[in-house]
Every structure is written in C-alpha cells, then in structure tokens.
Amino acid sequence: MSHITIQNLSAFYGDHHALRDITVEIPEKLITAIIGPSGCGKSTLLKCFNRLIDLTDGARVSGKIIVGNMDVLNGGTDVTDVRRRMGLLPQKPNPLPMSIYDNVAYGPRLHGVKEKKKLDEIVEKYLKIGGLWDEVRDRLKSPASKLSIGQQQRLCLARGLAVEPEIILCDEPTSALDPVSSQHIEQQLLKLKNDYTIVIVTHNIHQAMRLADYVIHLYLGELVEHGPANEVLENPKEERTRAYINGTFLADVKADQEINLKGNMCPYNFVYAKQALHALEKGKILKLIVDDPTAVTEVPRGMEAGGHEVVSVRQQNKTDWEIIIRKKS
Ligand SMILES: Nc1ncnc2c1ncn2[C@@H]1O[C@H](COP(=O)(O)OP(=O)(O)OP(=O)(O)O)[C@@H](O)[C@H]1O
Ligand SMILES: [Mg+2]
To answer: Are residues 149 and 262 in the same domain?
Structure first.
C-alpha cells in the first residue's frame, strides 16, 4: 500500500529546476532507497516530503505530496504536524547540546509530557529501539557530545523516534560513520521497517542492496526508474540505471581520454569537454574531472542534449567529481 503519494512534483532553486515532474508512490512499512549521482535531487526530494525546503530562500515547489489524509504541500497544512509524522535522520549526527537523556526527552517534553516516570520510560524505550541503551544506560546524564559519532547517530535516531513519527527519512545516514557504526544503523533500520515506512537516500549501491525493498533512481532531477529493489538493482529496464549501477561497481571505467578540469568554472568545463569530444572518434570514452558543483549537473545535461551518452557521474572525494561520457556514434 502507498504511504507517500507524489504527483507531478517539481522543485526549483531560483531558476534551477532541481526536480522534474516526479510521480511515484512510496510503499508503507518497507524501505525505499533513493539512488542517483551527486546533485540529482535526492536530498531535495526528502526536503519536499517534510517541507524542510520551505527554509531555503528562493526555493519553489509544485505538485502534490499526500501522506494518508494529509496534503503536505498545501499552505493550510501545519508544518509541525508534517515534521512530527516524518522524522529526519541527517547525514551528520546533530545531537542537541544537552545530555543523552534530554536529547531523547526533548520532543516528548515539547509535546507536553512532563511526568518524570513517563519520560524515563520513553527515554529507555527509544534508546533501546535506537540500539544504544546498553551502551549508555549508566551515563544518561552525560553530554551527548561525548558519544562517538556512530553512537550520536543512533541517539539521533532515538530522538527522532521518540516523537512517534510514521515515516523515517534518512539522508545518507551512514556516510559520516565507520563501517561498524554503519552496520549498527543498518541493522536498526531493518528492524524498524516492521513499524515504520523508511526512505533512505544513499550513494552506496551495496547499501541499497542490503536494505531496500523498493528503489527510486533519480538522474538530473528526473525519475528514471522505480520498482522493487531486486528488479531495479539487478535487472534495470533503463539504460541510465544500468549505467549508474555499473559505474558505481566498476572501480574505473577505462577512458580513451581523461582531462582534468579542476579549478575551472562550469562554462569553461563545458567548452573544454566539447573540444575534447570533438577530437575523439565515435563511441570512444572521455573522462572529465571537475570540482565546480554546477558542472556536475550542467555538463552531463549539456552532453546528453548533444546526443552523447553519460555513462556515469561519480563523486571521487569531497571536492572532485568524475564524469564519464561516450561520444555519440
Ligand atoms: N539551497 C540551494 N540553492 C541552490 N541550488 C541548490 C540548493 N540545494 C541544492 N541545490 C541544487 O539542486 C540540485 C539537487 O541538489 P540535491 O542536494 O537535492 O542533490 P543530491 O542528489 O542530494 O546530491 P548529493 O548526493 O551530493 O547529496 C543540485 O544541482 C544542487 O546544486
Ligand atoms: Mg544530498
């Protein structure tokens, strides 16, 4: 059954069209993974769900998002209610500057729970669900900031769950964590899907394979493909999905030519890329390394408009992206 129904959703940052006419349903009490290269609109989609996008100056959204009987984007809908029903677990843990106990009790207190015994129960319950209780039960009053990053992320999970959402939105929740802490979070999410609808943004195809029941592939703001995880990840219908999945598996696509465009602004990257492609034979592969964030979306878009095939766009490290293009044949 559908829990979040998205109809003709578009999002703009100023003139930049970040989501293009997305229509899709997110099934209830399953894990949906949103995959796609950096800049394709994954975080924007999550931010539309809980209307965090309202906080971005110059952002505009159109279309519909329906959760149960709630019309999320309708101006008359209470944003606090939207956010209570959809908890967000961000990329980097963001514990509040207070004790472990108070972090979890924060939401329930805001919602009017005052009695100490009741709060004690809530804190214990959600720290258990978050998979952190055993590690912190003896130091509930110590500052959350003293926990390891991995523990802080499980605390944030517990804090989010304590306000009893229906839906958990996770934006690359393990990308700042070491492998063991990541595994902890993944295990909790797998347990939680019995009771919650979970949407997880991930760069990591292996993580999507481990967790997802259902996959949405975004590319340059468009929904390319969606469906059951095994179909989309193992036997995609769309060439672009296949290219993305293969691109993330292959350590390196063998390029016929590689050019390093770091330090250049997007329009120059574009010109250099076109020149380089011009000099290549049909069907050959060009690899570009860029560090201008605009280029990451605009260069592939322009190359596709020119009829070339964008094989993959991958983030190599914090600043650099690799764009692989096959010259049109
Ligand atoms: N506040 C903003 N103002 C202007 N443009 C933005 C803003 N936030 C995002 N964008 C642009 O919108 C597009 C989609 O961004 P988004 O953050 O949703 O991508 P993403 O798929 O989450 O990428 P990543 O994998 O790097 O997190 C990108 O081109 C990005 O540059
Ligand atoms: Mg993102």
So the answer is: no
